[in-house]
Write a structure and sequence with these properties.
Rossmann fold; NAD(P)-bd_dom_sf; oxidoreductase; Dihydrofolate reductase; five-stranded parallel sheet; NAD; oxidoreductase activity, acting on the CH-OH group of donors, NAD or NADP as acceptor; seven-stranded parallel sheet; 11 helices
Length: 301
Amino acid sequence: MFKKLVAIEPVSLVEEAEKELRQYAEEVVMYGDVPADDDEIIRRIGDADGVLLSYTSKINSCVFEHCPGIRYVGMCCSLYSKESANVDIAWAEEHGVTVKGIRDYGDRGVVEYVICELVRFLHGYDRPMWKEMPVEITGLKVGMAGMGVSGGMIAEAMKFMGAEVSYFSRSRKPDYEAKGMVYRPLTELLEQSEVVFACLNKNVILMHEEEFKALGNGKILFNTSIGPAFEAEDLKNWLDGGNNYFACDTAGAIGDPTGELLNHPRVFCTNYSAGRTKQAFGLLSEKVLYNIREYLGNANA
């Protein structure tokens, strides 16, 4: 059991999960806003031995050094790799601090989002119609840049709807190829696809000026990644230079610190994470609690 467990910011746990936390700590503190800086994070953690955070704050080596009581950090957000994490996992490992993250809790909402937005483009609902007449997903040439869990789910949804699906990934995916999806090198995929979905890990920049040239004109680009998959200037030039459209669910996926691209006439951003659904919060809560139970079981062994 933790002596003190602190959620330094809103962590999206459902009410039942918040109640269950009290079974695992003598004291539980839940903060309802995002801390402004490291000093505030340090103040909130204090002498706690367990810490929870979401994707909106960072725990770096400075925070760890000022809070020597920390033994466990639970990330209530996606953990793809040490390098992309918002916790200094390398420091934690060197000093015996356990860091646990979660994955794959909001993917179904993302699939629903892309189908919804794509149909609106193809039929001209509440936006300019992509072609002169409404078209179906059937026969659409779809390219997947990234075939992780969400990318694979989007690819299967597109295939089910009759699209011609090709993909680019760091490794070949025989299971998907057996379902009729075709592997292509990135440049070839961009050239031959009419609609491209970027489904990449956080902090992976895949598309630069040359890639946008390969993508060409008359295309639709989706980014379902947590962050941008490109440089904002290259995206802007592509949008300004042709009859192209870009869609994403959050402003962070645009990667424009000025905020100007959010208002670009060819950018369609709902500005709300498609993965933040009732079901996703429930699954997130289950995974966060599982990590805590697993840690306490091992810690007490």
